[in-house]
Amino acid sequence: MATKRDYSLLGRDAQAAVANGLSAAEWYHTDVPRKQMKDLMKREDGPAIRDTAIWLGCLVLFGGLGVYFWGSLWCVPFFFAYGVLYGSASDSRWHECGHGTAFKTMWMNDVVYQIACFMIMRNPVTWRWSHTRHHTDTVIVGRDPEIAVMRPPDLARLILNFFGLLDAWHAVIDMVRNAFGVISAAEKTFIPESEQPRAIRIARIWLAIYAATIALAIFMGSILPLMLIGLPRLYGAWHHVMTGLLQHGGLADNVTDHRLNSRTVYMNPVSRFIYWNMNYHVEHHMFPMVPYHALPKLHALIKDDLPAPNPSILHGYREMIPAFLRQLRNEDYFLKREMPPTARPYREEFHGAAMASAAE
Amino acid sequence: MNDWVEVCERDAIDEEDVIRFDHEGRTFAIYRSPDDTFHATDGLCTHEKIHLADGLVMDDIIECPKHNGRFNYKTGDARGAPVCINLRTYPVKVEGGRVYLQVD
To answer: To probe the interface with B, which of A34, A104, A105, A127 has the most B CB atoms within 10 Å?
Structure first.
């Protein structure tokens, strides 16, 4: 019989996870010799400077061409490209710079982090702490504030988020609430008190920027300013949702082995640029110190200890969507990742209860 | 009591690296800086009790392997989110090619 999950950060499952040791647990790691791990963790500025120059350069170029052709159909492909760079590439830049691993020079991480946070509409203080929790308690029900697909899946919500609709709406509500000085009870569970004033200050700055953009649009009698600031979070969101759902969708919850709850997917070079190699997601969660540009090397080193990657985005969706549909009937169902014979086995004795309903 | 405890041979720690050292139920991180000085702190991150010896040493900074929290390992200062509480540091000396830690 299916058990109803309580995803509230203040709810029953949150308390249970702390009580039964699932929260802040020791997670499985593939053994990697220290010397090799040090090489992989090594920071560089070069790759991220190159990628950031391409990213921001293309934003200016495509945004400029979109403005130039505004009023004709020729603007559509340019705003399509601008939107993906604004509403999707910002997701991976927020993520990687939040870890502080993209650049060797910290101020560069901080600057790109702030720009990306604004574009993806994630308060840089709130989301830094939320993502910290996501890495401590990855897909632990009631503890992880970043579970994209809860069980049973809300398919309407998933589809709407391909256009950023619900995420952006909630982001606006959170921004206005924070700007009025209110930190929610859930936010207080993961943002230290000393950091909360910063979250409020940034929300006020953002609110002022959006107010100025809306005022300019009204003054011009055109939505063009909003096509450049704000709306791309909606019309360009589809790529980060497409790749992001694959990270953990349809896999196990309440386990302490990233091989069970995360998915590595081989992707085309364009998507990997937009996504900054986060398609190597098992590897990223197992070793978050490794910068995005070294993840392919890490993958090559440890792949014999990991489940086989999905060979394409389409392949990932072909296994994930049926799992979502089955979870509508039985929310305990999940896809159990099969391991190669060279891998160290899952700790079945520890994950026995969670495995009971796995796919055979 | 402030005893000096032998940790390891000097060359057991690479330059710009860290090792874990356990002593009487406590765990420490012992560092060798790029300018060849030796330092010691508590072994666990003040944020979520992760062993810092699995982290990355960059100049004067140790970065925690779990959440990328950063400390100056020479002073113990926390360098921003998600670490807010400083690390405790301990005296270290090198004599006769061996590293010693002063514990209290």
So the answer is: A34
Distances (CA, A) of B82 to A130, A131, A319: 10, 10, 36
**Residues in a beta bridge with B21:** B28
B83 part of contact set with chain A, CB < 8 Å: no
List CB contacts (< 8 A) between A42 and chain B: 56
Phi, psi at B61, each rounded to 5°: -110, 140
Higher per-residue pLDDT: B32 or A356: B32
Asked if residue B36 lies in contact with residue B99, where contact means CB atoms within 8 angstroms, the answer is no
CATH of B14-89, picked from 3.40.50.1820, 2.60.120.10, 2.102.10.10, 3.50.50.60, is 2.102.10.10
Task: Compute the nearest-CA separation of A84 from chain B (Å).
Answer: 28
pLDDT at A226 over 80: yes
Q: What predicted TM-score, i.e. pTM, was given to this entire model?
A: 0.90
Nearest-Cα distance to chain B for A3, in Å, is 30
Facing B68 at nearest CB: one of A101, A125, A192: A101
Among A26, A30, A37, A41, pick the best mutation site for testing chain B contact (most B Cβ within 10 A): A41
Cβ of B65 within 8 Å of Cβ of A289? The answer is: yes
Q: DSSP per residue over chain B, as a string?
A: --EEEEEEEGGGS-TTEEEEEEETTEEEEEEE-TTS-EEEEESB-TTT--BGGGSEEETTEEE-TTT--EEETTT--B-BTTB-SPPPEE-EEEETTEEEEEE-
Residue A254 and residue A23: Cα distance in Å, rounded? 9
CA gap B20, A334 in Å, rounded: 38
Q: Is the Cβ–Cβ distance between A88 and A238 less than 8 Å?
A: yes
Q: Does B37 touch chain A (CB under 8 A)?
A: no
Cβ-nearest to A135 among B17, B56, B67:
B67
A197 close to A136: Cβ distance less than 8 angstroms: no
Whether the per-residue pLDDT at A346 is higher than 80: the answer is no
Q: Is the pLDDT of residue A359 over 70?
A: no
Which is nearest to A41 in space by CA: A109, A108, A99?
A99
ipTM greater than cut 0.95: no
